[in-house]
Amino acid sequence: MVTPPLRQAGWTSRHLRHVAGIFRQDQNPAARVYESIGSNCFLAPAPGWLNLGLWEGSGSEEEADTACCRLVQTVAAALPEAGVVLDVGNGLGTQDPVIVKVLRPRKLIAVNITEWQLSIGRDRLREAAALGVAGDATRLPIADQTIDGVISVEAAFHFRSRRAFFDKCFRVLKPGGVLSISDISTERLPLGPLELLAAITQIRVFGLRPSAAMTADQIAEAVRGRLHGCGRHRVRRSGNRPGPSADRVQAPGNAGRARGARWAANCRSPPAQPG
Ligand SMILES: C[S@@+](CC[C@H](N)C(=O)[O-])C[C@H]1O[C@@H](n2cnc3c(N)ncnc32)[C@H](O)[C@@H]1O
Fold first, then answer.
1. Which residue range(s) make up the domain with 84?
2. Which residue positions in the chain have pLDDT lower than 50?
3. Cα 165-91-259 angle, rounded to 5 deg
4. Closest residue CA from atom 10 of ligand 1
5. Which of 18, 45, 61, 162 is the most exposed place for a label (fewest CB within 10 A)?
């Protein structure tokens, strides 16, 4: 049997450097991961998408594109229309024209730590008339109280700290602004050595920190912690789907009185295990 050289199999020294980067877990592991998996990754449910989707059907492949798009539409729908919208962790940019269709924002800014994705997604950013900004969600290079709505679709599990991200959202949101996110939660510890191995592999391959493992309730609690003193909020669990389940946290009270008083978060769980 002749083994094809790595180059022939589509591997280059750049890929090998990225794999090494993933396992070294450097300063910016998420960017290394997304540079390495590129724009045509077998892990993507549908071309151009890197979220797990919001499914209504049986979970067949034909629904994948619609499910990924539906997730973005659903998360975006909680934000105010015609305002300044900040999209954090915009992936390949496929979601930005979708956000524009839903919200008709006055301005759309997309922040992504993976500069390569901003560059490969520039046509979609142009289509959405969005401004791409290279930056970290836990630092947010955005001025205070300038944003009407923050959207983040399945990116927060990568962030150094979700609480730091919520703090920064609170800083950049105008009074009455809304945060709407979907996220990947971890609902239980691994059962047995195989699940443990799978969990460790996932953490390493996706460049995650062990602290990223939070249940949907803990994520909701972290949002609530930031909302403390800012009025009422509401948590609603929308149940299991062939794709992940979703929780919604909303603080409709005091809109306009306290900074960032209206927030919504979709906190998503991993897909239900078959059987
Ligand atoms: C799972 S992908 C989701 C992409 C996109 N939202 C979608 O639904 O297709 C996670 C995204 O978050 C970005 N990301 C990860 N860590 C980040 C950080 N600290 N700050 C900003 N973006 C980050 C990644 O570069 C990637 O684009």
1. 72-268
2. 1-8, 235-240, 242-275
3. 30
4. 155
5. 61
Instruction: Evaluate the CA torsion angle 30, 225, 51, 89 in order and state its sign.
Output: negative
What whole-number distance in Å separates Cα of residue 163 and Cα of residue 152? Answer: 14
The answer for residues whose C-beta is within 8 angstroms of residue 6's C-beta and 6 or more apart is 12, 16
The answer as to whether 125 is a domain residue is yes
Q: Please list the residues that pair with 87 across neighbouring strands.
A: 110, 151
CATH of the domain at 107: 3.40.50.150
pLDDT confidence of residue 106: 98
257 CA from centroid of ligand 1 (Å): 31
Number of domains in the chain: 1
Ligand 1 mean position, distance from CA 179 (Å): 16
What does the alpha-carbon distance between residue 171 and residue 15 come to, in Å, rounded to a whole number?
Answer: 38
Q: Which of 65, 86, 90, 172 to mutate to test the pocket of ligand 1 (most atoms within 8 A of CB)?
A: 90
Q: Looking at the whole model, is its pTM more than 0.70?
A: yes
